[in-house]
Design goal:
- The chain contains 20 helices and 14 strands.
- The chain is of the alpha/beta class and 511 residues long.
- The model has no long low-confidence stretch (mean pLDDT 96).
- It is globular, with a radius of gyration of 26 Å.
- The protein is 45% helix and 16% strand.
- It has 3 domains: 200 residues, Lambda Exonuclease, Chain A, CATH 3.90.320.10; 78 residues, no CATH class; 209 residues, Ribonuclease H-like superfamily/Ribonuclease H (Nucleotidyltransferase, domain 5, 2-Layer Sandwich).
- Strands 1, 2, 3, 4, 5, 6 and 7 form a 7-stranded mixed sheet that branches.
């Protein structure tokens, strides 16, 4: 059974045949890098959502393993007219698929439920509401279940309803939204039927595919996990920063293809003619890289910073966004604010003051304590400096105002005073070759303030912060272990606000 091609293998192959070959024949390379904190969070979330969805279809019998025994047990349970099976397994001796939730009707028809930890809405049915990968995932299952000799009554996508608001105990019938997508499944099954023999031939050979993988025509964010391995001979010295890293180039795929087909991978070698085919933002990124020095619009930066009024508050939030709403008033994936860091500068010549931070370690909803502490510490006048205002303003503050209306006036006042320091970089008023086209504070800080870095921190990014807090409030730990993690979180969040101050100070120094 270990040689079977799974549903996951097919989806990987569909995205990049080279990567799928590596997964099958050289798993030590395919799995060389452990999942990032963010990726692991997605995996854990998917498992948790599936476990919760099973409660909608209770009484099912779980199938363990991914082997011949699992397939045989599934067959036996179906012969015994078992109504519900979790992870029912099917194979045709070449392919394998496990169904999240399988229900058997009285007439023997099978109903397939594929659980996804994504948001949807009962109000938005249509083609655009169906992710292509989800569609092919479900269609592959239907295809294989039929090949195994069973009749499929219907195929459902089970997702979280993004409009659901928790009030009291979780209402599973409102939290989850099941939608039959048979019409769309039937349209793509012929494509799967054409794909299967090609995939089996390619993955059946131990000979590594030649040449670069198809991801060479995609932007960096869509590269397969073994992209560097397959393309190292052509990308060479620019494998970590190439034309694939041009800002949002994935949305300009035809233009990227022009460069790739001309064997232009190094941003430094893009011709003036080819530069002209891109929009202004990418043109600036290319030219700054080719000149090897920063491009700074001093007048525009001066205009932006003139909007600031003292005292200045440098503010940063941390939050956790569980798929299953944890507290009343929350929707799926709505952010729970559990921490903030705050620095204050009274005048341009005064000493920076660190304000008492907020960090919540109890099991209840932190929001009332979070917003109460913020109201006491931030004052009613002066600009509030953040990095990426969408997060603090929209994802956190506006939702707090909805959950706790008594704070709405205060929150609206905070939002009206926010100044987004990232704007100077996202608008390309200050561009540096070493930003690599990014306006992330993780990219900007080490270039402008090289003495500061996130690299040595125990908690070094938002995903790590989010997962660390979740562990603190859900896992059994000693008091000492909790305190150690808390201190790591405080150090990380404090650096975010101090970094904004240092970047502001740098900008003031150059204008």
């Amino acid at each position: 059974m270990s040689n079977l091609i799974s549903k996951t293998d097919y989806l990987v192959w569909k995205d990049c045949p080279h990567n799928a070959w590596m997964k099958k024949w050289k798993p030590e390379i395919y799995n060389a890098l452990p999942p990032s904190e963010f990726d692991q969070h997605l995996i854990d979330t998917g498992s948790m959502v599936e476990e919760e969805a099973r409660k909608l279809y209770s009484g099912g019998i779980p199938i363990e393993g991914r082997d011949e025994g699992a397939v045989n047990k599934t067959r036996d349970l179906l012969e015994k007219k078992t109504a519900t099976i979790y992870q029912a397994s099917f194979s045709d001796d070449k392919l394998f698929a496990a169904v999240d939730i399988l229900k058997q009707g009285k007439d023997g028809e099978l109903y397939i439920y594929e659980v996804k930890a994504s948001n949807s809405s009962r109000l938005e049915e249509g083609d655009k509401d169906i992710d292509e990968e989800h569609l092919f995932d479900l269609a592959f299952q239907v295809y294989l279940v039929r090949k195994a000799g069973y009749k499929v009554g219907a195929a459902y996508l089970v997702r979280l309803d993004k409009e659901y608001v928790r009030l009291g105990d979780i209402d599973l019938n409102k939290l989850f939204y099941s939608r039959s997508i048979d019409e769309y499944v039937e349209k793509v099954i012929p494509k799967i039927e054409r794909d299967i023999p090609i995939m089996l031939e390619q993955l059946g050979s131990s000979k590594q595919p030649n040449g670069p993988c198809g991801c060479i025509y995609k932007g960096r964010s869509r590269h397969c996990t073994t992209f560097k391995y397959h393309n190292k001979d052509i990308l060479k010295d620019v494998i970590d920063y190439s034309v694939h890293d041009l800002t949002a180039v994935g949305r300009s795929q035809k233009k990227l293809q022009v460069l790739i087909d001309s064997n232009v991978y190094d941003i430094a070698k893009i011709s003036e003619e080819d530069i002209e085919m891109f929009g202004e933002k990418i043109q600036k990124q290319i030219r700054v890289h080719q000149r090897g020095k920063a491009n700074i619009d001093f007048e525009a930066i001066r205009g932006e910073l003139s909007k600031l009024e003292f005292p200045l508050y440098f503010l940063d939030y941390e939050s956790f966004n569980p798929a299953i709403p944890r507290f009343d008033g929350y929707k799926p994936y709505q952010h729970i604010p559990f921490q903030f860091s705050l620095h204050k500068l009274d005048t341009i010549d005064s000493k920076l003051e660190e304000i008492e931070p907020f960090f919540y370690m109890e099991k209840g909803d932190p929001t009332p304590f979070f917003i109460d502490h913020l109201e006491k510490k931030i004052g009613r006048v002066g600009r509030i400096v953040v990095w990426n205002r969408t997060f603090e303003e929209s994802l956190i503050n506006k939702n707090i105002a909805l959950r706790l209306p008594k704070y709405a006036e205060f929150i609206n006042g905070v939002n009206s005073r926010i100044f987004d320091l990232m704007t100077i970089f996202s608008k390309q008023l200050h561009i540096h070759p070493d930003f690599h086209g990014s306006a992330s504070i993780k990219k900007v800080l080490p270039v402008l303030c090289p003495s500061l870095s996130y690299k040595e921190l125990e908690v070094g990014n938002g995903s790590e912060a989010m997962n660390t807090w979740n562990r603190l409030v859900t896992e059994d730990m000693t008091k000492e272990q909790k305190e150690e993690l808390k201190q790591s979180m405080l150090v990380y969040c404090r650096l975010d606000t101090f970094a904004m101050y240092e970047i502001w100070k740098y900008l003031m120094g150059i204008i």
